[in-house]
User: What shape does this take?
Amino acid sequence: MIRDNRSTDMKIHIIRGRPILEPIACHGPFVTDRRHELIQAIEDSSVVKIEIFPVEENISV
Assistant: This one.
């Protein structure tokens, strides 16, 4: 880890390894090895599910 003494907010991590020699598809926070999996991940993350519960009118607090 490299630290910059001018700022306490900055950290850089350098990671080294052998190349995996496989295709990589990435967009935003998503990383996969197949383009169709990337598209599916983006579509899945954009689905918003809202559940509506019935309101009971005579609730005593």
